[in-house]
Amino acid sequence: MTRTSGSGHEGGEPPAEQSVVVLTGLSGAGKTAATKLFEDLGYATVDNLPGELLPSLGELVADDPARFEHVAIVLDIRAGDVESAFDAVRASLHARGIRPLVLFLEARDEILIRRFSETRHRHPLSGQRGIAGSIAEERRRLAAVREEADVIIDTSDLSLRELRERLFASIPTDVDPDRLAVQVVSFGYKYGIPLEADLVFDVRFLKNPYYVPELKQISGLTDLVRDYVLAQPLAGRFLDEIERLLDLTIPAYVDEGKSRLTIAIGCTGGYHRSIVLAEEIVSRLRARGDLAVAVFHRELEQA
């Protein structure tokens, strides 16, 4: 484990001990899943920040250790000149007494190609060279960063659960092992069920705001869609039943030693009903006070 600490400040109390992680690696190797894990652990996560702004981010993190006690900075090929951006942010942190833990995720070429094919996502370097050529070029550009990594994880044959375990073992954490971390994921069935889900609930029985012209283009995070969904009597009954189910099962999960629980809420497109109900479930779980709760709306980017 690599633990870092901020530099001293004149006057006042000593700075808080900090844990700063730089998460990097190949596109398709699992950085999105890793980022969610850090969020579950209470890390402030920064993803896809332009390379020119990374030194300023390093200064901000170092100058306010109480606010940025746990930070995960995602740095990959989208930053442009990755090696320069990596050197700049690391130098900015080192100058203030912080040594970040550098995690590099990678996978075999055939695995990456299959993942891009299955998800239909574009490789950041895709163009005339095709997927295989893009992966080769990305490996070349990230070679120097890989050499500087503290931990390199090959995700080719890892399940999402195994990836979580590998990452959890690599990073400093003071998370209470007896406190269940719950992630609620909203999703659209048309894009597939989240592979990491432990519990899956289908809310397509509710009337769909998609067919209301003034609601079609706005998400379940808006008051208009929320009010439309929750005004349906079945929505309230569903939420009450879910709450009773979780009141029954969460203590049993904890007794069995489970540290994380992923609850997936799905509707057709993952943009209206599932988002509203996921947010409501999160609100009820947080009111318990005994859980670490996070929410992720998977299809917002699709929209």
In short:
With 303 residues, the protein is α/β, with parallel strands linked by helices.
Can you walk through the features of this model?
This protein is α/β, with parallel strands linked by helices. The chain folds into two domains: 4-170, P-loop containing nucleotide triphosphate hydrolases (Rossmann fold); 181-300, no CATH class. Helix content is 40%, strand content 18%. It contains nine helices and ten strands. The protein has helices at residues 31-40, 54-63, 82-94, 109-119, 130-148, 160-170, 223-230, 233-255, 273-288, and strands at 4-5, 17-25, 44-47, 70-74, 101-106, 151-154, 181-188, 199-202, 260-267, 292-297. Strands 1, 2, 3, 4, 5 and 6 form a six-stranded mixed β-sheet that branches. β3, α2 and β4 form a beta-alpha-beta unit. α4 crosses α5 and α8 (233-255) packs across α9 (273-288). It is globular and about 55 Å long.
Question: How do the helices and strands line up, and which of them pair or pack?
Answer:
Layout: E1 4-5, E2 17-25, H1 31-40, E3 44-47, H2 54-63, E4 70-74, H3 82-94, E5 101-106, H4 109-119, H5 130-148, E6 151-154, H6 160-170, E7 181-188, E8 199-202, H7 223-230, H8 233-255, E9 260-267, H9 273-288, E10 292-297
Parallel strand pairs: 2-4, 2-5, 3-4, 5-6, 7-9, 7-10, 8-9
Antiparallel strand pairs: 1-2
Helix pairs in contact: 2-3, 4-5, 8-9
